[in-house]
Design goal:
The protein has 199 residues and is mostly beta strands. It is 15% helix and 53% strand. β8 and β9 form a beta hairpin.
């Protein structure tokens, strides 16, 4: 395993926490019994924090921000963030009108397919389904979808059975407007760190 630095601000605010990414050699196909064991270890509800580097500048430097959130794992193939916030997404949108519109959207459920690849410790890849916002801006109605990177070693979760703490990372890779990728709408790749304790 190699250490992955999400972003400098995240490490500064959480010096004691390190996120680790798997390489291809770490990923293996589990048996049905191993998958069941991994699922039984993590199933349940979690309350914690979503952390991101806010590109709003203070003296030319990014600052970190955090929002309370919670999620559930009720099956061996899906995780649901119950209150995924729009503000962290909006912070990275370069179009100021669209950014303001997205920031005003309510939280929503964000579903993500998961695939276990380790039992001890429990670890899994995360494939979030795009968050969709139906909004009005620039004089018309538009469907805005926030797409995440999927099938990547840098979108993952792990669970510590002793502390009952889960750490996850999700990566936003693009924004689609009315079904078309708008590469200019993101100021950079967006990393979200999520940390929570099992209830």
């Amino acid at each position: 395993m190699k250490t992955l630095r999400l972003f400098t601000a995240l490490l500064c605010c959480m010096a004691a926490v390190s996120f680790t990414s798997c390489n291809n050699d770490d990923i293996k196909t589990l048996t049905p019994e191993e998958k069941l064991s991994a699922f039984n270890a993590v199933k349940g509800s979690y309350e914690g924090t979503l952390i991101y580097a806010n590109p709003g500048t203070n003296n030319g430097k990014n600052t970190h921000d955090s929002i309370a959130t919670h999620w559930q794992i009720n099956t061996d193939s899906m995780l649901i963030v119950k209150d995924f916030p729009a503000a962290p997404v909006a912070a990275y949108i370069t179009d100021s009108v669209l950014a303001k519109t997205i920031a005003a959207q309510p939280t929503q459920e964000l579903k993500a397919m998961i695939g276990f690849y380790s039992v001890s410790p429990v670890a899994f890849l995360i494939n979030p389904i795009a968050a969709t916002y139906n909004v009005n801006y620039n004089g018309g109605a538009h469907k805005v979808q926030v797409a995440f990177y999927v099938n990547t070693n840098y979108s993952f979760g792990r669970y510590n059975a002793t502390s009952k703490k889960m750490e996850m990372q999700m990566v936003i890779g693009g924004i689609y407007v009315d079904g078309k990728l708008q590469s200019s709408l993101l100021s950079s790749t967006v990393f979200f760190g999520l940390i929570a304790t099992k209830k």
